[in-house]
Amino acid sequence: MQRREFITLFGGTAVMWPLAARAQQPARRVYRVGWLSLSSADRSYAIIAFEEGLRSLGYRVGENVVIERRFAHGEMERLPALAAELVRLGVDVIVTGFNPITVAAMNATTTIPIVMTGGIDPVSAGLVASLARPGGNVTGFAVDAGGEILAKRFELLKETLPNLSRVGILFNPDIAATRNRLTSMTEIAPTLGLTTIPVEARGLDALEQAFAIMVRERAQAFVMQGDSVLFNHRSQIAEMALKNRLPTASVQRELAEAGFLLTYGADIRDLFRRSAVFVDKIFKGAKPADLPVEQPTKYELVINLKTAKALGLEIPPSLLTRADDVIE
To answer: Which residues pair with residue 141 across a beta bridge?
Structure first.
């Protein structure tokens, strides 16, 4: 073999070798996350926070992880079909929010891991066997489970309205967790010198009647329980509250941004960000049954000064200094 032919042959082999080596390497795993939400697709902050959490752990959406998003747009009856669709897609894990969403996922699968970001009293609700050892295919976060948090919203309203004695509780009776919290709230209120006026609202068409009841019963303010159905109507509820001169407290900052007087609750963005840690552990082989349910570590108080001024209220300086955010 002549020297030129040898060099050509060797060079061609050198070029082909890395190509062949790469061809023999196993393809990188692309994980699939099912995202099941009762809310609308415009609740993008939750997905953004979750993706931030994934990136901090080395995942890149569209590269080594894909998120299959399904939104019920406030229609709970759509959740079972959407959950079943995610199961048919063969996702590796399903991320949910509050209890009705988690229940829909649980009814669709007993094998695919489920990470809940907003479990309300998940043991009593039957979502997990215990917080320390969930025991099934569900783990994640338990939020707003204690009376202390429920009482805090009453206390914040009383601090704003020293003469407060009659307070409404707006809730969705279709959600078992909110019914359970209603019991706790009606037990806590008298210890703070408050009479409660529970009013039901399953959706937008029930709000007019709910406000009419609160006005008739001389409510001076109201607390809205958190759920994704009423969350979707937050702007309309804020407008009706202002129209009826009723200061409103609730769970998460988006409601204060919509016009509620104040909100106090777990930092939802932080929970979605931290839920990526559960997902990462599951990707690496951990079983939900062995991953303890965690509690929120960050709570936030948000006050809407624009709403306070529209209602003619003076927010105490001591309350403003404790706020994590003030909307002006």
So the answer is: 294
* C-alpha–C-alpha distance, residues 247 and 167, integer Å: 10
Q: Give the integer Cα–Cα distance in Å for 241 and 259.
A: 9
Place of tokens 């209120």: 189
3-class DSSP assignment, residue 326: strand
What is the percentage of the chain residues whose pLDDT exceeds 70?
90
In contact, 153 and 275? CB cutoff 8 Å: no
What does the chain come to in residues?
328
- The answer to whether 161 touches 319, Cβ cutoff 8 Å, is no
* Selection from 183, 59, 208, 190 nearest residue 198 by Cα: 183
How far apart (Å, rounded) are the C-alpha atoms in residues 150 and 172? 16
pLDDT of 10 over the 50 cut:
no
The phi and psi torsions of 304 (rounded to 5 degrees) equal: -100, 100
Which tens digits make up the pLDDT trace of 177-193?
788 788 889 999 999 99
- Residue 150 corresponds to which tokens in the numbers above? 């429920």
Mean pLDDT of the chain: 90
Cβ contact 253:325 at 8 Å: yes
160: left (phi over 0), alpha (psi -120 to 50) or beta: alpha
Please report, in angstroms and rounded to a whole number, the separation of the first and last CA atoms in the chain.
Answer: 85
Q: Which amino acid is at 97?
A: G
Q: Phi and psi of 141, rounded to 5°?
A: -125, 140
Tokens 């009856």 found at: 77
Q: What angle do CA 12, 17, 21 make, to 5 degrees?
A: 160
Indicate the SS3 state at residue 153.
helix
Of 326, 263, 269, 323, the closest CA to residue 296 belongs to: 269
Question: 250 - beta bridge partners?
Answer: 263
Q: Looking up tokens 């200061």, which residue turns up? A: 247
